[in-house]
Amino acid sequence: MASYHLLHEGYVRERGENRVRVGSTVAYVRDGDAHVVIDPGMVASPDRLLGPLGDLGVEPGDITDVIISHHHPDHTLNAALFAGARVHDHWAIYHGDLWISRPAEGFAVSAGIELWETPGHSPQDITTLVRTGEGRVAFTHCWWTAEGPAEDPYAPDRDVLRASRTRVLAVADLVVPGHGAAFVPSADTPR
Known about the structure:
- By secondary structure, the chain is mainly beta.
- It has one domain: Ribonuclease Z/Hydroxyacylglutathione hydrolase-like (Metallo-beta-lactamase, Chain A, 4-Layer Sandwich), CATH 3.60.15.10.
- About 10% of the residues lie in helices and about 35% in strands.
- The chain has two helices and 14 strands, in the order βββββαββββββββαβ.
- The strands form three sheets. Strands 1-4-5-6-7-8-9 form a seven-stranded mixed β-sheet, covered by helices on one side. It has a five-stranded mixed β-sheet with strand order 10-11-12-13-14, covered by helices on one side. Strands 2-3 form a two-stranded antiparallel ribbon.
- β12 and β13 form a beta hairpin.
- The chain is globular.
């Protein structure tokens, strides 16, 4: 079974005129020989990612795969910290100068890590489903935090987002949202 550690709990705060402090929720997942970082985006300093990894005994060169939930800079900015890793997005795998086209839907990064296409926040969103000893964990941007927002201001189609949220909630025992703490889905979780 896979295991995971949250390296950085994301946030959106200190909004001002034309500026906002934003940090991505970043996770490390280990499943056998797969060492995966999910959404290595904006953080106050790269040390906020590399320090917790080091505490786990993991070096940047140990990372085999990086998964990008969508192509907004707040979720991609620090991917280069893991230069030797394969990078996964909604339509391909990138490794060095190799571009391997494939749909994300159903792609198995490892035996316990699967990608799903879950458009909503952007048309190219993917969710990473991880089978752990405690159940299925969904790393997703279907929600920014446990509270939603109920109406994502960037979602191009509310019905598409609702369908992706419903799909994820049907299988997830725990949700790790794009900019907040992990939460157990409930009847109050925005649909």
